[in-house]
Specification:
The complex is a heterodimer of chains A (about 250) and B (about 230). By secondary structure, chain A is mostly helical. In chain A, about 75% of the residues lie in helices and about 0% in strands. Chain A contains ten helices and no strands. Chain A starts with a helix and ends in a 25-residue tail after the last helix. The chains are: A mainly alpha (about 250), B mainly alpha (about 230).
Amino acid sequence: MGGAAVNSYSDAFAWLADPAHWAGATGIPHRLLEHLGYTGLTLLIAIAIGLPVGLYIGHTGRGREIVVPFTGALRALPTLGLVIILALGLGTGILAPLIALVILALPPIIAGAYAGLQSVDREVVDAARSVGFTGGGVLWQVEVPLALPLIVGGIRSACLQVIATWTVAAFLPLGGLGRFLYDALPNQDYAQLLAGSILVIVLALLADGLFALVQRLATPKGVAAGRTADIRTKTHSPTRKDPSWLAPEEA
Amino acid sequence: MSWLVSNWSQVSQYGLAHLWLSIPPIVLGFVLSVPLGWVANRFALTRGALLTIGGILYAIPSLPLFALLPSLIGTRILDPINVEIALTLYAVALMLRTTADGLAAVSGDVKLSATAVGFGAARRFFGVELPLAGPVLLAGLRVVSVSTVSLVTVGSVIGVNSLGYFFIDGYQRAFYTEVWVGIVGTVLIALVFDTLLVLLGRALMPWTRRGAGGRRRDALAQSRWAVLR
């Protein structure tokens, strides 16, 4: 049992180290670029749609009753089923998975923007208005900077979901890292199955780490310093780390 | 419709399999997250460590995790236990954060009051802190339930069958009806679970029923989960 596990891992790393798997259109770099390209494209479209919607709801408070339950209901839709039903209608091109994945990436992006603006202290908004900020000024110079960590958090969730789902969607002849998994399954090529899985997991963790970093950088300096005052957990000395339950990253 | 009737035994068989694959991760996610959430809040060090581990676990895509687990724990690749374990890990990762936050949000004054009237640590935790954190836990559990029911279908890719089988089979046969049956069935199970959880919450926490603050808290909690994923 343990021995088999050790063997399969050394096989997987041998597979990864094989130069033959690093060249050509079916090699790791090419598959990785495909995966990154699809993920980036999906995210761009989802951000272009979801961010304005989320900011609008958060800023005006209008439309919340429609969008919040709707985004909740979207979560119940099984990803794989959505990709397949669209692929049956639209063919095996990029369009079907792209539409499905944009739909799936929208809820976290909208919710991040909406929750981000909701988390901004109303007194801060009122103060901004009282010193002369108008609607656009309040949004772009006060609300968005303060909400930025949560907005980025929404995009981070969407990104992870998109990376994961492009892996599943690789049953379509579009490439991406998931191809290694789908090619390995019928042949019971466990070395390749493991190696492909490791590649996807590393990619997801790197993306997650990168977004965690962006989230930290996106926190306005004044906020990071000011929040130490309202740490609710007891007596230990305040740190710069923010334990607020609103922050979606591991604090 | 006629396809559904003539294939009913298969549909109900995979529907039942879907239920049995979904229930253990949801229950275990809740049960395990309570002690872990307590530990996370108890010490500053464990909070950071546990929440970081949870965050990393939750970032791992499902299909690769299904494929990775057999060689990690020595199971066969077709064994449904791989899917159960992977989904339990996700459920715990998600619920852990919820539980830690819910417990941490219980007012310190309330805890002191409980101690003052003679509650011991255990009775205070189970009689005061856990019930007060209940609505937050319920909101988290609802998200875990919906995402677990949906993720179970991905198991069909590696041959652990559920209603997701109809996606794969329907795609290979280019047969819409079959795929739709899989989608509608999955959404139905998610809806039934969600309704049961809400009813269970009302029965166990009668004080949360239609409170003025309830809806706002729900909306806040919902949006937070969406950010988590």
